[in-house]
Each structure stands twice: as C-alpha cells, then as structure tokens.
Amino acid sequence: MIQPVIICGGDGTRLWPASRRGLPKQFMPLHGSTLFRGTLARARILAPQAEPLVVCNREHRFLAAAQMQEEGLRPGPERAAVILEPIGRNTAPAVVVTALFREAEDALLLVLPSDHRIADPRPLAEALRTALPAAENGRIVTFGIVPDRPETGYGYIKQGAATASGAFAVERFVEKPDAASAQTFLNSGGYLWNSGMFLAKASTLIQEFETHAPDILQACRAALATRRIDLDFIRLGEEAFTACRAESLDYAVMERTERAVVVPLPALWSDLGSWDSLYETEAKDAAGNALVGDVTAEDCSGTLIMAHSRLVAALGLADMVIVETPDAVLAAPRERCQEIKKLVSTMLAADRRELLEHAEVHRPWGSFQGIALGDRFQVKRIIVAPGKRLSLQKHHHRAEHWVVVRGTAKVTLDDRVMLVHEDQSTYIPIGGTHRLENPGKIPLELIEIQTGSYLGEDDIVRLDDVYGRVDG
C-alpha cells in the first residue's frame, strides 16, 4: 500500500508579501482553496486506501489541521498523523523521519511537496503506475516534469538509459541553469524539471541515509525516539532535531545514490516558487496581463497585478509584478522575481514584522487584524469561529475594551461569566483573568481596544488553553 507523505515546512519567501512565515504559500488561499488542500485531494486520488502523513513546522500545526478537516480528514497520532518539526531543517530530515515512522511496515512512501500546482492528476497517476515496480525493487524513483519552456527557476535531471521497469536511469542532477543552458536543455529533449516528488520503500530510504548521510539518520532516530503526543500532533524531540543539519534530499542522498531512477511526467505543473511561475499559471487577458482583485490596467502587457485590499491602478507597465496587501506592496520586473529572496533577506536584517505575519493573523480559534496602532493604544478586529474559545489568560501591561458587533460573546472575567450581545461591550482591566468564547453558530466579531504601556503579543500569561499552546 502506498503511504502519501506531504512535506509542508517551507516559508515561500519568494512569494512575499502574500506568503509570510505565519501564513506560507502552501496554506494561503489561491482561487478559493490552498496548495496544501490541493495536495491532500491529489493524495486521496493517488492513494485512496491510506490517509496522508504530514510533516510541518510546529508554528503551522493549526493551519494544517484546519485545512485537513476541510478536506474531510481528522488529524491524529494514529490517523492522518501530523509530525511537527521544532525548526525547519529542509527536506532530507523530514523524509527520513517519515521513513523511520513507517519503518515497521516498510511502507512505500509517496513524497509530495505541499506547494505544487498540478492541473490534472491523471498523468501523475499514470507515472505512479510506471514507478511502482522500480520502487518495490529497491529504487528511489523521482518524477521529472517534461519541460515546455526554457525555465531558469527549476533544477533539472539529465535522463539516462531506460530500465526494464519503464523508468530511466538518472545521469545527473543539474542546478538551476542560465537562460542559454535552459534553452539547450529544452532543445536536447533529454532533460526534465526536478519536481521534488519521490516514491521509495521506507527501508530503501533508511539504507541510503545510513550510507550517505548517517548523521541525519541518527539525529532523526533520536528525535523520533523522544517524540511526544500533543493533542492531535506528534512533536519530534526538540534537542535532537535541532541538532540535525539542514539538508535537501537531493544533496543528502539523490545525487549520491546508485538507486535513483526517474519517470517522465508530462503534466501542467508548477512549484509556484516565484511570482513569475505564478504568472504562468494564471488566466490572462489579450495583452498577456494576469489581473487578480480590484485592478484597473491601461496600456499594460505581460504584467501580473494582485490586489488584496484596495484598488490598484496601473498605466504603461510591461512584464512587471505588482502585489498589494493591506500592509505591504511589492513592485518588481518579472524577470527578476527569483531575486525577491535577497530583498526579503535585507528586510529580515531590518527586523521588519511584515515578513512574519499578515495584517490578519490566524489562530486556532479564528483570527485578528490590526486596525490602528498608536502611542499606548491599539485597535483590533477579532473573529472567533463558532464553538471556539481563547485561552484563559491575563496581561501585565494592558487593559482591553471589547465591543461586540456580530454574534454573542461568552466572557469569563475573574469569578464572573457573562454573555455580551451585539452592540454591547465589556472591560478587561490589567491583571484580570479572562477568556473569550463563541457559544453561537455564527462567527463572533468584536472590536478590541487595547490601552497600556506595552501592547506586544507576548504579554499573555496563559492559565489554561484547550490548544495546548506554550509556543504560540
């Protein structure tokens, strides 16, 4: 039986400002869904007998769980297991942890990155059937996308001789090429895009890590041995996993092993690694513009414009990317989209909060959005989902006024419990032990006005939390 493994630990920095650490690209909404949900749906088609095994950063656990539930999956240690990494360590540790997790049954692991867009899963299903005999015979199969353009944003695989199983030997892996080399690869017909999707038995992966990256294998064994169950999640041992070196599966094993083979995959595929690659997948007007949201464009061509919160008007632009969010705007030539990572590094050095969270911040109980911030005051719009509640908590430095604008709030304040209805308000003094709940069947919406000497999110002392949060 095939065990789908979905890897979703990346930050997607090249899709900033839409993708951020608090809401990376695999979880952000695109055309009514998310890439992660699309991967879950694809896994169900490819391996209908098995629930997926998900590996994600612990900061994204509630995002992953909520979207799994939206796809009809119930996360749990013995069901659709979600393994939490305490820190990102690239794909090699993530993959070997899942191999160790399924070592006893020697599962056939289908590794799927969570941030890919595949228009039609049928070619992948056909490629999977071709790959199965090779994987069952101890090969590590990767899927190479048949290129349709000279792409410089992807790595390539040089296809070797055909094997008896229908797969091909891997002659070599090639780093992201320059434009001339990419054109040569396309013309030759012997090169495939490296998709980052794999099929292999757990025992095969473990053996190859033992040979080529024993330190990673040892660290991951220790991290799995010291795991603990936290609600519906499996937390890897923090000390052991943090000590593991960060490495990709390609560098750790695939470029060294003699067991690698590749199956060509003729599919409309994108890893959405940059705004230019997203542009390629979007519907376009007659001038080649991809316009999303409230956009007015005049005399523009080949341009991607995304407006999230207001009107964006553009005049006379060619081959540009404009992305507007409530708190940041990106403008760049499409041909330089791969360099956005450098821009993000510059802002990271300046400690810009816009890299971490959106103006709307998601929590397991709902979301909040900053409306105004000044000296000793802050205003937020808070949404609490039906049946959800915040932690029982208190603040050392701020007081809060809550005004309910939709729904009904159940408020605990010290030894009192009260219902606050629409157009009513309540006051939480500094040091008051309090909790907010939504007992109703519609989202609870309220305006929170904070006042005090310090208004940071870390001024929260949690006394009781149904989500088991200690780290956020």
What is this structure's SSE topology?
Layout: E1 2-8, H1 35-46, E2 53-57, H2 61-70, E3 82-85, H3 91-101, E4 108-113, E5 117-118, H4 122-136, E6 140-145, E7 156-162, E8 168-174, H5 179-188, E9 191-201, H6 202-212, H7 214-225, E10 228-230, E11 233-235, H8 238-243, H9 249-254, E12 260-265, E13 269-270, H10 275-281, E14 290-292, E15 295-298, E16 304-307, E17 312-315, E18 320-325, E19 328-333, H11 340-349, E20 360-363, E21 366-374, E22 377-384, E23 392-394, E24 398-406, E25 409-413, E26 416-420, E27 425-428, E28 434-437, E29 444-452, E30 461-464
Parallel strand pairs: 1-2, 1-4, 2-3, 3-11, 6-12, 14-16, 15-17, 16-18
Antiparallel strand pairs: 4-9, 5-13, 6-9, 7-8, 7-9, 8-12, 10-11, 18-19, 20-21, 21-22, 22-29, 23-30, 24-27, 24-29, 25-26, 25-28
